[in-house]
Amino acid sequence: MNFTLKIMLKIGIDNIHVYKCFILQHQVTDKTFETKLRWGVPLTAEHLSYLADDHYKRPVIIYDYPKAVKPFYVRLNDDGKTVAAFDMVVPKMGTVITGSQSEERLDMLSARMKEFDLSRDQYEWYQDLRKHGTVKHSGFRLGFDLMVLLMTGLTDVRDVVPFPRTHGKANN
């Protein structure tokens, strides 16, 4: 099925917690994954593709990733194991949107920096932003080319790239 925004609105999008991803993929018996799925190791394109293309057969939003696979500045959830981050994966396309909530609590931010073995001096400016007060905030990244594919119904990303690259030309 060629997914467009209109089709996605009609069939819906499944929201799944990252724990469920692990459970589902460990139950798979008819497929061998190149990369074994383990807690604390990022989900690969192969794992994401299986969930969207084969298991759900529709777009999925995967949320609350393991804290070890996301940057130090992503907000730690109350369980202490996951962070407030998500990916939206569309069949035959991959990850179209990814996002996260930023850590606003200075003590948690300092602890996460320590976990990642980051220099306090190097990130002092970042901590100062939180030290003097902040608000809860989030952000996301949208794959522009993939979103244009969804809106137009085209099937090849090369048809929607705004600035195509050609082999053998300068600044390749």
UniProtKB/TrEMBL annotation:
Pfam families: tRNA-synt_2. The keyword Protein biosynthesis applies. Residues 44-166 form the Aminoacyl-tRNA synthetase class II (D/K/N) domain. InterPro entries: Aa-tRNA-synt_II, aa-tRNA-synth_II/BPL/LPL. Keywords: Aminoacyl-tRNA synthetase, ATP-binding, Ligase, Nucleotide-binding, Protein biosynthesis. Gene3D superfamilies: Bira Bifunctional Protein, Domain 2. GO terms for molecular function: asparagine-tRNA ligase activity; ATP binding. GO terms for biological process: asparaginyl-tRNA aminoacylation. GO terms for cellular component: mitochondrion. This is Aminoacyl-tRNA synthetase class II (D/K/N) domain-containing protein. It comes from Gossypium mustelinum.
